[in-house]
Design brief:
The chain is built from 5 helices and 16 strands. The protein is α+β, with helices and mostly antiparallel strands and 286 residues long. Strand 13 and strand 14 form a beta hairpin. The longest helix has 15 residues. Pfam families: Exo_endo_phos (PF03372).
């Protein structure tokens, strides 16, 4: 039987791994303001994808702090897109914790009979050591919403990157969960740093070389990687060579393990509610 774990370790350089180990004891366990959190779950080796997965990636710029904030309108636009497109998975960046639960409710209403689930991980505030906060006081970070329930006994894995920009008070984070599709599918999201390209590359290598390396295929990821489209050398050097991917022509990317092929990809106009469009990607079984 072929081992389909696709550990993707080759993307990390020896120098980066030494730096990552020095900055973070352990691998994909991660830490947040409340201490250690479980590492990403695994799925059985040799899983085959039985159906397509439609993933909607959105950076909603809803902190209330950034210049792109549109008064909360991005959540209404995201809700409208979810109702219209009924995706299987939604990956979210730059959202408040309450936004994730609100959009989980929207997906539940849009897909009759769905057993929805969600996960959230806040960025960390360098100055306080606590969760980074939206203007409304809620934790700010990344979220996942799924039309499928989470796999029993497989809690969401999440954490803070060991590589950060010391000049940026927002310390970037990742979150993953395992959902009961057929077969179970791992899903992750993240929003990488934009202030220092070396930091961004270090976080990307940690994401694929350590976090994703601890998960088994099939796996999909949506996020704002801040590395340009997959025509660019930086993103190509970070994504595993055996992965499949689609992007919005700018910084948002959907990537998946080789059980999938990209069957369709398109951007969705959020009508000025965010400085990013939605990115809807259909991943079909190979």
């Amino acid at each position: 039987m072929v081992d389909r774990s696709y550990r993707w370790l080759r993307v990390a350089s020896a120098g980066f791994l030494i730096a990552a180990l020095a900055g973070c004891a352990g691998t994909a366990t991660g830490v947040n303001a409340d201490g250690p959190v479980p590492g990403p779950p695994t799925t059985p080796a040799g899983s085959e994808v039985a159906a397509s997965v439609r993933l909607l990636q959105m950076n909603l710029c809803n902190s209330g702090i950034a210049a792109c904030y549109a008064g909360g309108r991005s959540i209404d636009e995201a809700a409208a897109v979810i109702r219209s497109e009924t995706p299987d998975l939604v990956t979210l960046n730059e959202v408040c914790e309450g936004d994730v639960s609100a959009l989980e409710g929207v997906l539940a209403g849009a897909v009759p009979g769905a057993e929805v689930a969600s996960a959230f991980q806040a960025a960390r505030d360098r100055d306080t050591g606590d969760a980074y906060r939206c203007r409304n006081g809620q934790p700010f970070g990344n979220g996942i919403v799924s039309r499928w329930p989470s796999v029993p006994g497989s809690p969401a894995g999440s954490g803070i990157y060991p590589v950060q920009d010391p000049e940026d008070p927002e310390e970037r984070a990742w979150v993953c969960m395992e959902v009961a599709a057929t077969p179970a599918v791992g899903v992750c999201t993240t929003h990488l740093a934009y202030t220092d390209r070396d930091v961004t590359m270090g976080q990307c290598r940690y994401l694929f070389g350590t976090v994703v390396a601890g998960m088994r295929a099939p796996l999909v990821l949506g996020g704002d990687l801040n590395l340009g489209s997959d025509d660019g050398a930086d993103l190509r050097s970070c994504l595993p060579s055996d992965s499949v991917s689609a992007d919005d022509g700018d910084v948002q990317v959907v990537a998946a393990t080789p059980e999938f092929v990209v069957a369709d990809s398109r951007t969705i106009d959020l009508r000025g509610a965010s400085d990013h469009p939605g990115l809807l990607v259909t991943l079909a079984p190979r």
